[in-house]
Design brief:
Elements (H helix, E strand, L loop, with lengths): L2 E4 L2 E3 L4 E4 L4 E4 L5 E3 L2 E4 L2 E4 L5 E3 L3 E5 L2 E4 L3 E3 L4 E5 L2 E4 L6 E3 L3 E3 L2 E4 L3 E4 L3 E2 L3 E4 L4 E4 L3 E4 L3 E3 L3 E4 L3 E4 L5 E2 L4 E4 L3 E3 L5
Length: 191
């Protein structure tokens, strides 16, 4: 129910760190952080500091609440995973989160400001809501999605990546731009 303020250092071991449904977490400062355990967000996590969050083997961030990127930051790597069952918000005007770990979106990604990008590949059937002049970018890796809705007046961009559409159609709302600057769109699903 309190606040977790992670300034620097490592959270490891086989246990779990949990931000309760009424709790708040804050990642602050320019200092790096290393995660090698499960980190569950049932409440709110505000990423305010620009210090990269690196993953060691066994790291997993599970968001069941709200994860708010308020600054441009490298978040994770291929040693762990990010699972969104809640809402990820990008509220940073000057950029935003760069999700470098494999990312499963079962919830909602809401780009309110700046842009959010993924280089570790995406799975899941969650939704993407992108405000006018904003972007969600897949910059590398292989992503497999199906049944997703992409809405808002912003841009869903594919750069140097492979996007496989499988199963249920991915719905892109009127006013939303799908921009493919390079890479491949493939699969048996419809856009």
């Amino acid at each position: 129910n309190g606040t977790i303020n992670w300034v620097s250092g490592t959270q490891g071991g086989t246990g779990t760190t949990t931000i309760s449904s009424t709790g708040t977490g804050i990642f602050t400062t320019q200092n790096g952080k290393t995660l090698s355990r499960i980190f569950v967000i049932d409440g709110l996590l505000e990423v305010q500091g620009s210090g990269a969050v690196s993953f060691s083997t066994g790291a997993q961030v599970v968001n069941n609440g709200t994860l708010d990127f308020q600054i441009n930051i490298n978040f994770g790597n291929s040693n762990g995973t990010i699972v969104n069952n809640g809402t990820i918000i990008n509220s940073s005007a000057g950029g935003g989160g760069i999700l470098n770990a494999p990312f499963t979106n079962n919830g909602t990604v809401n780009i309110q400001s700046g842009e959010l990008s993924s280089s570790g590949g995406i799975t899941g059937s969650g939704s993407f809501v992108i405000a006018e002049g904003r972007k969600f970018k897949i910059t590398s890796g292989t992503s497999t999605i199906g049944g997703n809705s992409i809405s808002g007046s912003g841009t869903f961009e594919i750069q140097s990546a492979t996007l496989n559409i499988t199963g249920n159609a991915v719905t892109i709302s009127s006013g939303t731009t799908l921009l493919q600057t390079s890479g491949t769109i493939d699969g048996d699903g419809s856009l």
